[in-house]
Every structure is written in C-alpha cells, then in structure tokens.
Amino acid sequence: MPTPVVDSDSLRHRFAERFGAPPALVVRAPGRVNLIGEHTDYNDGFVLPVAIDRAVFLAASLRDDRRVILHALDLDATDEFTLETITRAEVGHWSNYQRGVAAVLQAQGYDLPGLNVAFAGTVPVGAGLSSSAAVELAIAWAWCELGELSIERAALALACQRAEHEYVGTQCGIMDQFISALGRRDYALLIDCRSLDYRQVPLPGGADARIVVCDSGVRRELAASAYNERRAQCRQAVELLRARLPGITALRDVTVEGFQAHAEALPAVIRRRARHVITENARALEAVAALENGDLVRFGELMKASHRSLRDDYQVSCAELDTLVEAAWAVEGCYGSRLTGAGFGGCTVSLVDGAAVEAFRQAVSDAYRRKHARTPAIYVCTAENGVGRI
Ligand code: NG1
C-alpha cells in the first residue's frame, strides 16, 4: 500500500514529485455526519448534517491543453480524460466522479481548463461519511478557482449531485453535497430538502459536547436493495394517504396528528415506515430548537428516539449498530446516540460531554469487542467549514 497522505504538506510534496512542480492550489472538501433527520431527505423532509474534520484533499494546477490527469494517491492509480469529449469510465471506476463533475459543468456552459490533479482523503470509504460528495466538491472547487468560474456554493452542490446521478449512477439526495459545500465551523446545517432552504445552527463548544462517530466496520451490502425498497414503501404510503389527505405529495406534508388520524388506512409495514419518516421530520425540527435553546439533554433524547424509530419502525439497524448505540446510551455524559446514514452497518453518531469522551471511548469499545469480537474505529469530530482552498 502507498504511504497515506494525511495533510496538505505531504500532498503538495507528492504532487510535485508526480508533476515536476508544486500545485497552484490545494483544496479541502469535508465528509459529513448527519446528527438527525434520517431517511427524510428523499421524502422532501429535514436533515441536520455537520461537515467534519475528515476530508478529501486535492492539489491541482493548470495545464495548457484540455486534458485532465488524475492521480488517486490512496489507490496509487492514475487516469486521464479529455474535456473535448468526456466519456464514462467503466461502472464503479473512481474517476467517474471527476468525469461527471466536468461533464455537468460543461453542459451548464462553463469553460473548463485542463488540470493536473493529485488527491487523497481521510474520510473512510463506504462508512456512510460521504467520501463521494467530498471527492466531487473538491474537484468542482479546483475548477472554480483555477478556471475563474463564479458559481454559488448551493449551485455547485446541485451540479455535483447531478454528476453523481448521471455518471456514477447513485440516485442520492442533496444532503451530502450540500453540507460539503455549505458547512461552517462550529455549526450544523438544517436543510429543507424540498425547498433547499437552509439555516446554520450553532453547536455547543467542544468542552460542553463532542460529536463522536463510531464505525461498526460492517459494510453495507444490504443497504442498496433495502434503501430502494424503503423509498418505494414511502411512495406507497403517500399514494394511500392521499385518498384521505388530498394534496399531499410527500410524507413531508403529513403532520404527526394527521398521520394518527389516518394511520389505520395503511397496511402494517407501510404504516411503520410512514410513522418513522413523519415523526423523524418532527424530531429533526425539535432538535434544532433544542440546540438553539442550549438544551443538549432534549437533543440527546431526540437522538435516542430517532434510533428506536429507525430500529423498530424503519427496520434499518443491525445487531452491531444496536450494540454501539446501547453501549453509548449507558455512558454517563453521553447525551444521545443513534445510527447515522442509511443503516445496515456503517456508523453511529453520539453527542458526548467533552469530559466524558475518554470514558465513552473505553466503554463503547469494550462492549463492542465483548459482543462482536472486533474493535470499532472511533472518531471524535469537529464541525468544520465546507469546501475551500487551504
Ligand atoms: P449514507 O448511508 O450516509 O450514504 C444515504 C443517502 C442519503 C440519505 C441517507 C439516509 C446516498 C449517497 N446517501 O446516506 O441521501 O438518504 O442514506 O438518511 O445514497
């Protein structure tokens, strides 16, 4: 394996080794963790992600032709394409992210220069911390700066989402690209996934509470098919509820009270799926109010309720995630904990008093080792700015 690149100095050095001169710029694009609002984005609902201090770092300089030379340092792999006619690499190839971003920006009328690029990252791949969006935003930002393009951050996020739909083939929501573009140090981002309105929500200081991510190490084989099945069940719930609640177009439009009045119209499984989404939207909004009032205890309770709902109603948890979450709940100084991302593996997110972090790390690791004979990777995260030059 190549030596990992973990900071911008080593990246500059590796770029110069590769291309014979230092880069013109280095870009950092963060991964993310979602604090609450799970499986709500594709139901036009609310999410509350944070950009974290694990990121993709990308070094670039201009070329005087229209080629794009890409070096993926973590993979020790090189690829290139021409901006004259952008083609897709084979399905699953890492360069489809950069190809897709280039193709979408050019289709939007932007004139892109050729680039030499080297990149590496500290976002674990496939853990649900959104390394894909970080890769997209990093290259998009390099084109903005070196090509002197003036594109608003929200528009850049939308272009990257389109690249992922059209070039990578993942029908993702807008949460990941939005937070990688619009994150702000010490803030979470409330996103209305229907209107795309957003609001920065201040987080408590690090001594008061830390965001701790625990990676179960379980990769999410089941996730893709189950994810599509959940999406279909949500659409079915909307169809059935529309007979009683004319005018609704997504579960976002149904209040908790409206749901309770009409829940019996739904078959049992669909009812549980809908109940998760509808109550999760309410929890996400209440969680924002709790943060704004400095009420971390209430915020933590809402995280716990979110996990129970994901486990029992949406049925996207697994034994490993439940172990991590229940061990976290038992730690004094842990406000709350829940699975984050699509589920079936990946990570949990916890809010932990700054003074309790070491005890938390110990207790959760011990419980996980006892029950599943493996050690979870634990990241104590800070909330960071969105994509930008460093
Ligand atoms: P993760 O599991 O973090 O990739 C997925 C979706 C999100 C959202 C969550 C569930 C992709 C790329 N992302 O996140 O848009 O729907 O599940 O809240 O599919």
DSSP summary, beta strand count: 13
The average pLDDT value, as a whole number, equals 95
Estimate the helix proportion, in percent: 40-55%
Bound molecules: 2-acetamido-2-deoxy-1-O-phosphono-alpha-D-galactopyranose
Low-confidence segments: none
Strand order of the largest sheet: 5-4-6-3-1-13
- Classify the oligomer: single chain
User: Strand count, sense and closure of the main sheet?
Assistant: 6 strands, mixed
CATH architecture of the domain at 8-203: 2-Layer Sandwich
Number of H/I helices: 11
Q: Beta fraction of the residues?
A: 15-25%
What is the rounded Rg? 21 Å
Query: Which sequence of SSEs, written as H and E, runs from N to C?
Result: HEEEEEHEHHHEEEHHHHHEEHEE
CATH class of the domain at 8-203: Alpha Beta
What structural class should be given to the helix and strand makeup?
Answer: alpha+beta
Distance between the termini: 27 Å
Describe the structure.
By secondary structure, the chain is α+β, with helices and mostly antiparallel strands. The chain has helices at residues 8-19, 96-107, 131-146, 153-168, 175-182, 223-242, 256-262, 268-292, 296-312, 319-329, 357-372, and strands spanning 25-34, 46-47, 49-62, 67-72, 77-82, 115-121, 187-192, 198-202, 210-215, 334-340, 347-352, 377-381, 388-389. It has a domain at 8-203: 2-Layer Sandwich (Ribosomal Protein S5, domain 2). It is 41% helix and 21% strand. Strands 5-4-6-3-1-13 form a six-stranded mixed β-sheet, with helices on both faces. α8 runs antiparallel to α9 and α10 packs antiparallel against α11. It starts with 7 loop residues before the first helix and ends with a strand. The site of 2-acetamido-2-deoxy-1-O-phosphono-alpha-D-galactopyranose has 14 residues, from α5.
